[in-house]
TrEMBL record:
Family, per entry: Belongs to the universal ribosomal protein uS14 family.
SUPFAM superfamilies for this protein: Glucocorticoid receptor-like (DNA-binding domain)
Keyword terms of this UniProt record: Chloroplast, Plastid, Ribonucleoprotein, Ribosomal protein, RNA-binding, rRNA-binding
PANTHER family cross-referenced by the UniProt entry: 30S RIBOSOMAL PROTEIN S14, SMALL RIBOSOMAL SUBUNIT PROTEIN US14M
Assembly and oligomerization: Part of the 30S ribosomal subunit.
Transmembrane regions: none
Native organism: Asarum delavayi
Molecular function terms, GO-annotated: rRNA binding; structural constituent of ribosome
Protein known as: Small ribosomal subunit protein uS14c
């Protein structure tokens, strides 16, 4: 189980990213429309003004149940060992165990 502080930090980053998403997208569109280099630098400066944690690159997927940051499956939102336990217990519809 991940520390509670790390999980809360990740939630805070997600909230910030949602808050500044439209601002970042509009500034990026402006950069692509402007042709002069000085205007691009000016808009780029505005793009750097929101908080660092509002950047989508800083988000990290975590396991929905345990908060584990590594080995996550996007389709289920679970880490590998939790996914395996759930599949073996028949708690995930549509997921089957591999057998060969």
């Amino acid at each position: 189980m991940a520390r509670k502080s790390l999980i809360q930090r990740e939630r805070k980053r997600q909230k910030l990213e949602r808050k500044y998403h439209l601002i970042r997208r509009s500034l990026k569109k402006e950069i692509s429309k402007v042709s002069s280099l000085s205007d691009k630098w000016e808009i780029h400066g505005k793009l750097q003004s929101p908080p660092r944690n509002s950047a989508p690159i800083r988000l990290h997927r975590r396991c929905f149940l345990t908060g584990r940051p590594r080995g996550n499956y996007r389709d289920f939102g679970l880490s590998g060992h939790i996914l395996r336990e759930r599949v073996h217990a028949c708690l995930l519809p549509g997921a089957t165990r591999s057998s060969w």
